[in-house]
Amino acid sequence: MQETVRVYVPGRRELKVVAIGGGHGLSTMLRGLKRYTKDITAIVTVADDGGGSGMLREDLGILPPGDIRNCILALANTEPTMEQLLNYRFTEGTLAGQSFGNLFLAAMNGISGSFDEAVHRMGEVLAITGRVLPVTNQSVHLEAEFVNGSRVLGESKIFYAKKVNDCRIRQVRLVPEHPQPLPESLEAIAQADLILLGPGSLYTSIIPNLLVEGVAETIAESQALKIMVMNIMTQDGESEGYTGADHVRALLHHGVDGIVDVVIANNAELPEEVLVPYRQEGVGPLRLEREEIEDMGIEVWEYPMATGQRYIRHDTDALASAIMEVYRQKKLRP
User: Fold this and answer.
1) pLDDT tens digits, residue range 115-129?
2) Spelled out in words, what is the top-level CATH class assigned to the domain 17-45+135-140+176-331?
3) Distances from the Cα of 241 to the Cα of 23, 166, 169, 313, angstroms
4) Cis peptide before 271 (omega within 30 of 0)
5) What are the residue ranges spanned by the domains of the chain?
6) Exposure of 260 by Cβ count < 10 A (0-12 exposed, 13-18 middle, 19+ buried)?
7) Which pTM was predicted?
């Protein structure tokens, strides 16, 4: 059964939505948003250097395809068999652990003039709703600095370095610093009605986008409603012990004032039996600290959005519905 796209404002142009981030959190949100508008632009970090993406990056010299692939599939309108094929991971031989979708995008890059062109062409093949853009076409790596002064280069190494240092991340930076943005990314941000940051890994999925030249400033200057979608859980090796207010402070520290108007957070109760393995890793439900966020001049809206019997995630439909409700209340109020 084909999904029906619900135009949110009847009689007017499509709502222009820009979603910025990476990882599974962004793709989960995109699946729900495409039911409300066709004008979606996903702007995705390209700092990943681990797993199958890291292997292709090292072997072929291309930008990491994994997060891009997930977003394309989230917006795709394809048969289940095609989705299953693109998500297939090889289990044997030199390709063990590699995703066919990553190889598809790597091959598309080989016959295209640039990585963003390859992403665009893959989107056309899969008839996606909206578009997916790398935040930059430059090859960049992520460096983390911890509060004890030590540093580590490489996104895939941050988790282990944090365990060894046993202290918080002070800041992250891109190497080389201030890479040039994809012009289409800045244009999409400037023209957006709604800009979404997150959900996703704070330091490795969301913040790297803000470190690309001009991105944070363009968000702040945009007339769009800017929403930060708060994670449901803290993250092992990255944000354990963090509150929602800590997340906002980290975002503002790496960006500029004016990049967040509203925070959307989960308020659904989480079953204790599901939380047991999380607590064993030293993580748990994110404590919001609502008043601290509001003291920063940022509104907080809460909705029940959690789902999962084994892994706790945002419910795709509930998250998209909450986002659209906040937009309606903030922007379409008589």
Assistant:
1) 999 999 999 999 999
2) alpha beta
3) 21, 12, 12, 19
4) no
5) 17-45+135-140+176-331, 51-130
6) buried
7) 0.94
